[in-house]
């Protein structure tokens, strides 16, 4: 990605969050979901980097290295999708402002809106697919990676599960207003399938990490 002030991922964390909080049309929930998921991917690689090179984990080193390469590619995809989600929303934002004074203008607005809604659904669908890729790998980092970073694997699972649901909502806000209900139904089915499979998987990994960390702590607060 070129260094350009128009590129969202080149903003500082503070500038990004301030822009997100503003009334600017982008970034929005889709870009936020992609960014959050990219942090989940980065946490997986953190676990990997704390695992690789340690004698204790020599038997899983090659497996972890392979996953780290895959996670890195997914992270870069998600970073790009932060921008692509914003870029795809701009035409839709403009379409909402099209005139509707005449029958011809209303028909043209409907046509453009439909086209823009379909295009605006593409980025959040791809964000969801990339998040599913991450969630499918987090369990290995959690179960085979360095135990001192198991909480980081749990955080990755928690935020990726949330990001998956966030990206799904950005699909559904577009499909809700599509005239082509067959097209909308197909997107909805695909999104719901990912939610049904990978949402609970991420939740399970988080619960597993929670259980590991709480083991033996019963009654510790009161001595």
TrEMBL record:
<feature type="domain" description="Cyclodeaminase/cyclohydrolase">
    <location>
        <begin position="12"/>
        <end position="192"/>
    </location>
</feature>
<dbReference type="InterPro" id="IPR007044">
    <property type="entry name" value="Cyclodeamin/CycHdrlase"/>
</dbReference>
<dbReference type="InterPro" id="IPR036178">
    <property type="entry name" value="Formintransfe-cycloase-like_sf"/>
</dbReference>
<feature type="coiled-coil region">
    <location>
        <begin position="57"/>
        <end position="84"/>
    </location>
</feature>
<dbReference type="GO" id="GO:0016787">
    <property type="term" value="F:hydrolase activity"/>
</dbReference>
<protein>
    <submittedName>
        <fullName>Methenyl tetrahydrofolate cyclohydrolase</fullName>
    </submittedName>
</protein>
<dbReference type="Pfam" id="PF04961">
    <property type="entry name" value="FTCD_C"/>
</dbReference>
<keyword id="KW-0378">Hydrolase</keyword>
<keyword id="KW-0175">Coiled coil</keyword>
């Amino acid at each position: 990605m070129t260094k350009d002030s128009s590129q969202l991922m080149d903003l500082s964390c503070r500038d990004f969050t301030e822009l997100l909080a503003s009334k600017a049309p982008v970034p929005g929930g889709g870009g936020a979901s992609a960014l959050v998921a990219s942090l989940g991917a980065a946490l997986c690689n953190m676990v990997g980097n704390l695992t690789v090179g340690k004698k204790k984990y020599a038997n899983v080193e090659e497996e972890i290295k392979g996953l780290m390469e895959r996670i890195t590619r997914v992270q870069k995809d998600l970073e790009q999708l932060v921008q692509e989600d914003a870029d795809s929303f701009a035409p839709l934002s403009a379409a909402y402002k099209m005139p509707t004074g005449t029958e011809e203008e209303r028909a043209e607005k409907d046509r453009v809106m439909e086209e823009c809604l379909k295009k605006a659904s593409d980025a959040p669908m791809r964000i969801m697919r990339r998040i599913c890729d991450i969630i499918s790998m987090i369990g290995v980092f959690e179960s085979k990676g360095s135990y001192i970073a198991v909480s980081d694997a749990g955080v990755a699972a928690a935020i990726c599960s949330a990001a998956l649901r966030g990206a799904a909502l950005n699909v559904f806000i577009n499909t809700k207003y599509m005239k082509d209900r067959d097209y909308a139904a197909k997107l909805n089915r695909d999104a719901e399938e990912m939610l049904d499979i990978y949402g609970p998987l991420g939740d399970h990994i988080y619960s597993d990490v929670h259980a590991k960390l709480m083991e033996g702590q019963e009654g510790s607060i009161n001595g």
